Amino acid sequence: MSILSELNSLLDALGIPIETGVFSGVPPDEYLVITPMTDTFEVFADNRPQVETQEVRLSLFIKGNYTARKNEIVNTLLQAGFTITDRRYIGHEDDTVYHHYAIDVAKEYEVKEE
């Protein structure tokens, strides 16, 4: 399991179009873009990583008030066991009329030896 596949499944249920990296095609009035940020080995035992922490940025682009949708996304993530490492309003894009709000999300995954 990876954070990308988990987030796609989880957030798809909210009815928000979601893509990784960049939104292709004509964007709707609201959508999410997932940008992978880090994959780190922070927990070691016997010089072998036991856990991988994966972190991504969710960028919410929305025309109109973003507060209710942001809260819905954050609550959904927290209930599903994700860690929110940062939330911030990036700004209003005057040329596209979208508000851009970023939510940085992390989750730990057990490293399986092959």
Could you characterize what this model shows?
The protein is α+β, with helices and mostly antiparallel strands. It has one domain (3-110): 2-Layer Sandwich (STM4215-like), CATH 3.30.2000.10. Helices cover 20% and strands 51% of the residues. A five-stranded mixed beta sheet has the order 1-2-3-5-4. A hairpin with a 4-residue loop joins strand 4 (83-93) and strand 5 (98-110). It is elongated, with a radius of gyration of 16 Å. It starts with a helix and ends with a strand. The mean pLDDT is 92.
Helix and strand topology:
Elements: H1 3-12, E1 18-20, E2 30-45, E3 48-62, H2 67-79, E4 83-93, E5 98-110
Parallel strand pairs: 1-2
Antiparallel strand pairs: 2-3, 3-5, 4-5
Roughly how many Å apart are the termini? Answer: 15 Å
What CATH calls the topology is: STM4215-like
Q: Supply the number of structural domains.
A: 1
> What is the CATH level 1 assignment?
Alpha Beta
* Distinct helical segment count: 2
Strand content: over 45%
Percent helix, as a range, is 10-25%
| Contiguous uncertain segments of 5+ residues | none
Main sheet summary: 5 strands, mixed
Total DSSP E strands:
5
Q: Structural class, judged by helices and strands?
A: alpha+beta
Please state the CA-atom Rg, rounded to the nearest Å.
16 Å
The mean pLDDT is 92
Shape: elongated
Q: Judging by the overall fold, what is the CATH architecture?
A: 2-Layer Sandwich
> SSE order, as H and E?
HEEEHEE
Strand order of the largest sheet: 1-2-3-5-4
Q: What is the CATH homologous superfamily assignment?
A: Phage tail protein-like
